[in-house]
Structures are given as C-alpha cells and as structure tokens.
Predict the 3D structure of the following.
Amino acid sequence: LVQLSANIHLDDGEFGVFETGNLLTLLNAIDEDLTVDYQYHKNKLTGLILKDKISNATYLLGDTSLDAFQTHNLKTSLPTFEVVIPLKKDLIDRFIKSRKSLSDCKIVAFLPEKDTCDVIINYDPNHGTNRITIPFLAETSGGFDVSAYNIDPIAKAFAANSDFRDAKISISEKGLMEISFKGEDYEVKYYLNKLQLD
C-alpha cells in the first residue's frame, strides 16, 4: 500500500493501483507538467486521465473494495515502530548495487541490534546463500530476531525516490514496514507486510 501527498491538484479520494509499474510507465510517456482528471463509469471512479499539452493517457484503477486492497486499513492507528532507520543516499546506492550483484535475490532481512540494523540481501533462513550484509545506523526501542521482506518493492521505492531530501524505514515487530520519503514537493509512504518464512 502507498500513501502519496504531492503538489498536484486532486480531489481527496482512494485509488486502487494494482500494477504500480504500469502507472509509472504511463507517467514516463507524459510530460511532467500534467493535469489529472477522473474517469467514471456509472458514477464509480474507474480511471485516471493524465494529460500534458499534446497527449493524454488513461490508467484503469482497481476496485478498492477487493481483498487485495484490504491488507491494512491505514485509517486506523498504525502499530508502534520499534526500529527506525534513517536513509542516506550512499547507503541506498550500496543497497541497489548489492541487489544488482545478486540478481536472483528475492528476500531482504532486517536484523536490529542496539544502534544498528543489519540489512541482509538474499537472506534465506533454511539454506546457505550468497548474501551481502550492510549495517545501517538505526534507532531502536525494542526489537525482534529477524524480519524478512520481498526485496523488489523496496528496491523500486528506492529507485523511484532518488531525489528525496529526507527518508526512513520504520519496522514494527508486528510485521509492518513503512518506507517514507519527503521531496521538494511531495511526500510518499509505502507499506509492506513481512514474509512468513519456514
């Protein structure tokens, strides 16, 4: 799940985005100076119409009442985040470089210590793997043994927000990760569930 606040006029609302990659592809085809209109069918919001001075693109939205969008209700209170990792560009660059060097990697794990959190790329609890461990400085107010996540959404979030001014990863022992970025004219938060590993 993603929460986004940006310097663009949109009426308040919820939008179901099944394939973020498809939306990003459409946005790449439109100039940055764009407007956004809504597409409706029988008084139900079904799409976003993205227009620049020359062309327009339509992105079809998912139905937010479907189970796929009900993993967490962000309108209720979020859990306490026991581990907070401030993100710096050099460590994100190292993460992306490490991810590329282990191209078959699917899982990244976070193992908090007192003032650090080891980020283990290509983690597998049951098998020996080629892996890279990067120690990130962290603020901890509790902890957990290890928390593992699908690496692809994290790597995509890092790549999509390379112009950030402030960023952090927050992890709850209950299994929710929040990745937040603040840029010059936007703020975005990504939410991921931890993986259940055997």
Remarks:
- The mean pLDDT is 84.
- The first strand starts at residue 2 and ends at 6.
